[in-house]
Amino acid sequence: MILQTIEIRWIIPGEAPAAVKDWYERDPLCSAEKPRVDYYLKFPGDEFIGIKLRRYTGDEHNLEFKPVKKASVSLPLPSGIGGRVEEWEKWSMEGQAAQELSKLLRKQPDRWRAVRKARWLRHYTADPQIIRKIDANQKAQRSTPGCNVEFAELGLGAIDEIKENEPARGRPFWTIGLEATSGAQPADKTLEQVLRLECDQSPAELTRRLTAENSRSYPSWLTRVGA
Q1: pTM for the model
Q2: Looking at the domain covering 2-224, what would its CATH class be?
Q3: Cα–Cα distance, 188 to 177 (Å, whole number)
Q4: If I label 133, which of 125, 164, 196, 224 is the partner at 20 to 30 A Cα–Cα?
């Protein structure tokens, strides 16, 4: 599967403020996901490509190859907000390719970094007449064109250090990310409108941290933190 997206993300060191986490947890339309661990192949100095491996129960794997198509997309941001908007191409596959790369995870663990993610997801429609939030607990709806908003608590470490059921392990970070796809209107317009809606309603503890300094994709973040 190949997906074109317009995205903006912020990754902030430390624990997420209680007011931010509470804002997502109390939203009945927000989906609380089971914690998982994603494994990122390291590309030292390269912020524009990501290779992510996800393991499921049993011996199933999902491989995501994600190169940036446009590193800077011009998009008006809400007042007081800074960040980098990017266009990405996401290739997602299972089966033999994912299985083969998973062998490298076992043979060369130092080539990878593990990130534990406890995530909460929102989804907005891409209707240009009215951008509205719909129930993200219905997984089928999250695959419709529009914009996903992700809040996640992260734990970063080596692959033998990070575990799904042990949130205290690793270096703590938290992230807010928006990922839009084209539908009834272009993805950049949807992302712009959803970002404004989120910022208008979010607690001050969140918006004041949405700065250009904290704006990083996962590949950029892993390069900057020395992973």
Answers
A1: 0.92
A2: alpha beta
A3: 14
A4: 164
Q: For residue 201, which phi and psi values (nearest 5 degrees)?
A: -105, -15
Query: At 46, is the secondary structure helix, strand, or coil?
Result: coil
b or e along 210-226 (b: 16 or more beta carbons within 10 Å of the residue's beta carbon)?
Answer: beeebbbbbbbbbbeee
The one-character DSSP state at 109 is G
Nearest to 87 by CA among 74, 71, 76: 71
Nearest alpha-carbon partner for 119 in 62, 189, 47, 34: 34
Nearest to 177 by CA among 213, 210, 144: 210
Q: Using one digit for the tens of pLDDT, what is the confidence trace for 65-82?
A: 899 999 989 999 999 999
- The structural domains of the chain, with segments of one domain joined by +, span 2-224
**Contact indicator for 55, 102 with CB cutoff of 8 Å:** yes
Residues 53, 94 contacting (CB under 8 angstroms): no
Is the pLDDT confidence value at 100 over 70?
Answer: no
CB within 8 A of 20, min separation 6: which ones? 151, 174, 202, 203, 205, 206
CA 154 to chain centre: 11
Going by C-beta distance under 8 Å and a sequence separation of 6 or more, which residues neighbour residue 58?
none
Could you tell me how many helices (H) and strands (E) the chain has, helices first?
6, 10
